[in-house]
Amino acid sequence: MQLRYNVRLYPIYPTPGQCQALARAFGCARTVFNDALRARVEARERGLPYLSDGELSKRVITRAKTTPERAWLGEVSAVVLQQALADLNAAYRNFFASITGRRKGPKIAAPRFRSRKDARQAIRFTRNARFAITAGGRLRLPKIGEVPVRWSRPLPSEPSSVTVIKDAAGRYFASFVVETTDAPLPETIGEIGVDLGLTHFAVTSDGRKIDNPRFLRRAAKKLRKAQRSLSRKAKGSNNRRKAVVRVARAHAQVADTRRDHAHKLSTSIIRDNQAVYVENLCVSGLGRTSLARSVHDAGWSQFTAMLEYKAARYGRTFARVDRFFPSSKLCSACGTVTASLPLSVRSWSCLCGAVHDRDVNAAKNILAAGRADRLNARGGTVRPGPAPARPGEAGTPSKLPATLAV
Q1: The whole model's pTM is what?
Q2: Do 273 and 190 touch, CB atoms closer than 8 A?
C-alpha cells in the first residue's frame, strides 16, 4: 500500500535564499501548467486535433526555454516542469473519464488556470530529480539546497517522490510517497458499529459515547477577531497581507486539531476491533442544510476515510451500511420499525417493551446490518432456513369441503 508521510520543514521558514528558490519553482511550475492548458484550449477553439502529451512537452518546456520570454524556466529542475505537465494530463484524463461515465462519483470539471494568488502552492520531485535525505536528516532538493526537516518518525521505506507544499498560513511541508508493508494486527473477536452524530461525535454499539469536540465553535471568538482585523486593512497593503496570514493560521490550527483527533480515535477503534461498520452518510447533502457549519465542523468524511484506509492497512474489516437503512427507527431487540421518530426524540420505547437510546440503538442496528452484509458477501445464507410447519399450515386436510371433494 502506498501512503503519504507529511513532515514540516523546520524551522518555521527555510532560509531566505531557499524561500526565493521555492517561490521561483512554484512560479515556473504554474507557468508551464497554464501555458499547456492555454495551448489545448486554443487548439480546441480552432478545431485542431488534441495536442498529445509529447507535443505539448516540446512546445511549453523544451522550445519555450530557448525563447527570451521563457528562458528563466531553465533556472529550476526540469522534473518540476514535467510533473506540472503530468498534473494537467491527469486532470484532462479524469475530466474525460467523468463526462463519458467511466469515472464514478460527482462530475469533474475541466482543468482551470492556476493563479499566483492561490492559497496553496506545490511542486513535486520524483526519483529522476535525485532528491535525497542526508545523513543529518535534511532534505536535499535540486537547485534549492538542503532544507531542515522536523521528523516526527522515520520513513518505512525509500520514498518514490516528494511534494513540497506551501499552505495559506505560510508553512512549508514535505509530503513523501512511500510503500508500506505493515504486518496485520493480531486478530480480535471484537466487532463494532459506529453511529455518527452532532450531539455526540460517535456512539458505538457497546454503548460508548464520544463527545463532539466542536473545534470550529471553540475557536469562533479567535476567528471573528482575526476576520474583523482583516476587514479593516486597506487592500493591497502589507498589513492586509499579514492579516490574511493570521486568519489562515487560525483556520489551520482548527484543521490540524480536528485531524489529530480523527487520527487518534480511528487508530483506537481499528486497533481494538476486527470489524468496523459505519453508516454511509450523505455529507454533501447535509452540508447544504441549516446544520452545514456543524456538519463540516464534525469532519465525518475525514474520519470514515481514515477508518477505511487503516482497516485495509492493518488487516481489519471495514464496511458501510446503506444510508437509507432505518437504523434509528428499527428496534434492535425485536426488529419492529416504528412509524415516525423525530430528531427531537432521543429515547423511545418499542411495543415489545424494550427502551432504546436513539443513538445506541442505531449503532447496534448498524453492527447487525454490517454483519449480515458481510455474511452474505462471503456466501452465507441469504434466506432463512426451513422451519417446522405449524399444525394445519401444510398437508391435505383429512376432511375436504363438499365443494372440493371428488
Answers
A1: 0.84
A2: yes
